[in-house]
């Protein structure tokens, strides 16, 4: 290697490293959760609930006795959860009581309190200005703890309550995405005495313990402690050892019909500008740096619920740190697009390349003899070379395979590739099954979390025209086939579903598919936009 090459590669490493450091959230620039305490006005302190025999009871938050809390627990049915799309009751994984919406009523309305929404939005999106409002959907009431009587288990179980009394918990899971615009969950801890039952959260190497009891310690008795977090954050409730831990949860959605929350710039950081913005500015002001790094890639920090293909990116509802990354790219007019990244399962350890694709590959839908890599590459995907191949020289079989992708097909055509440099190393999708989260708080509703990456075109003169044209055609073909099949399946299911809430969900899904179909027919979807 000549000296000049060594120097320039060291410089280029420095540039990408500088961008990487500026994006890292070590300094606590982004959190995937935010907490607070809200003191309820008198009108919001009454909680009504219905027993399974139809009796309506109420309690006053701030002065709930343990007998009242126990009565609330008795009104509950056992909480189930989602395991690979099935609704499962398994008390070794989740042990709690639940009341569905319609079985309880509470006048606390987060959307009606501008200060509450502002606090929540400033905590979850400290650097980004939201372009949509937040809709809060009341979801469930959960009772964890000293439930002494389980009517659904019968009187004999009542006598054997030692195993099911205290000690409710919910092991690690992600909250199931209900649609593409759901981004988070809000858990409100009611002021009812208990011990244990911390909510532990983990995301991207950070963790947090939400001890709501401690937050309520010095607050007025009619206060609730709350935590909002992005729904792909892994979380669990530790065992409750005494009393009753009662929470009411809301699902959080972006909603363009609702006014955007007032933006509060981060007060803790004494910086006016996000460090990544300044770092990127320095790079794009340097023509040599742009030429050396025409295309940059970023693995997103959050997982996103997508159905069969990545929708046009203006429709992808981003969370926290990912939203600010995109806002910064947009502020410089840098073109970008979203992709999934796959590695050949068969040659996983040796494979020196990954495949960028906008298709959510579902191993179950392909014939057994159809090679996933070929499928993705022939449907608008392309190769990103990222390491030296291992063992190719010694292994003729691997050599054939490697040369096939490196130097082209028998007919002389070559697979398309892109020189992407990863500022943030992305997670890979699983080619065997792209359905990510196994444990959810609900069975899946057709949306699955995917690890998405962003590819940004730093050099506007970089020759990507051929790729763009070819890709648009392939993408459109793929989208249309997938969509038409999807709409047909949904319409077929509709005929068999009589439950009103389920029908509404399926109708919602049909609406989304039609929306995407409209996009694919009425707009050209460029690779970089
Ligand atoms: O009660 C809590 O703190 C969280 C409950 C939860 O994670 C859920 O219901 O999905
Ligand atoms: Fe949860």
TrEMBL record:
A Pfam family annotated for this UniProt entry: 2OG-FeII_Oxy_3
Domain Fe2OG dioxygenase: 135-254
InterPro entries: Oxoglu/Fe-dep_dioxygenase_dom, Pro_4_hyd_alph_FE2OG_OXY
Highest taxon above the source species: Eukaryota
Protein name: Fe2OG dioxygenase domain-containing protein
Biological source species: Leucocoprinus birnbaumii
């Amino acid at each position: 290697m000549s000296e000049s090459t060594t120097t320039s590669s060291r410089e280029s490493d420095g540039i990408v490293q500088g961008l990487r450091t500026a994006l890292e959230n070590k300094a606590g620039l982004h959190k995937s959760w935010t907490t607070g305490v809200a003191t309820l006005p008198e009108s919001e302190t009454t909680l009504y609930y219905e027993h399974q025999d139809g009796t309506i009871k109420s309690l006053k938050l701030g002065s709930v006795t343990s007998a009242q809390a126990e009565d609330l627990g008795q009104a509950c049915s056992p909480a189930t959860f989602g395991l690979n799309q099935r609704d499962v009751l398994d008390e070794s994984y989740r042990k709690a009581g639940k009341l569905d919406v319609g079985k309880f009523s509470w006048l606390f309305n987060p959307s009606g309190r501008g200060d509450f929404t502002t606090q929540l939005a400033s905590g979850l999106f400290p650097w980004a200005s939201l372009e949509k409002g937040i809709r809060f959907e009341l979801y469930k009431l959960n009772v964890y703890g000293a439930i002494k009587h389980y009517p659904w288990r019968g009187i004999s179980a009542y006598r054997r309550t030692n195993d099911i009394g205290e000690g409710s918990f919910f092991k690690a899971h992600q909250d199931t995405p209900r649609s593409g615009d759901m981004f988070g969950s809000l858990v409100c801890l009611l002021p009812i005495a208990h011990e244990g039952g911390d909510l532990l959260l983990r995301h991207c190497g950070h963790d947090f313990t939400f001890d709501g009891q401690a937050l309520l310690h010095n607050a007025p008795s009619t206060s609730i402690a709350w935590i909002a977090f992005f729904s792909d954050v892994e979380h669990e409730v530790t065992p409750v050892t005494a009393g009753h831990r009662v929470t009411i949860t809301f699902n959080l959605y972006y909603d363009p019909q609702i006014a955007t929350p007032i933006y509060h710039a981060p007060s803790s950081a004494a910086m006016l500008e996000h460090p990544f913005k300044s770092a990127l500015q320095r790079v794009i002001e340097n023509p040599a740096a742009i030429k050396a790094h025409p295309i940059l890639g970023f693995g997103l920090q959050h997982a996103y619920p997508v159905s069969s293909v990545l929708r046009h990116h203006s429709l992808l509802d981003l969370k926290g740190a990912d939203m600010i990354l995109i806002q910064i790219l947009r502020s410089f007019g840098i073109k970008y697009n979203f992709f999934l990244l796959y590695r050949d399962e068969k040659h996983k350890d040796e494979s020196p390349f990954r495949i960028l694709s906008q298709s959510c590959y579902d191993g179950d839908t392909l014939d057994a003899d159809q090679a996933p890599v070929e499928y993705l590459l022939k449907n608008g995907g392309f190769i990103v070379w990222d390491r030296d191949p291992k063992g190719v020289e010694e292994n003729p079989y691997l050599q054939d395979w490697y040369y096939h992708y490196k130097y082209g097909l028998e007919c002389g055509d070559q697979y398309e590739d892109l020189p992407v440099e990863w500022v943030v190393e992305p997670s890979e999708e699983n080619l065997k099954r792209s359905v990510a989260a196994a444990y959810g708080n609900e069975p899946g509703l057709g949306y699955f979390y995917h690890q998405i990456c962003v590819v940004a075109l730093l050099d506007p003169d970089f020759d990507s025209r051929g790729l763009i044209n070819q890709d648009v055609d392939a993408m459109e073909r793929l989208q249309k086939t997938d969509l038409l099949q999807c709409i047909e399946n949904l319409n077929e299911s509709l005929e068999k579903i009589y439950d009103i809430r389920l029908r509404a969900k399926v109708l919602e899904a049909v609406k989304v598919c039609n929306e995407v179909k409209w996009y694919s027919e009425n707009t050209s979807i460029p690779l970089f936009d």
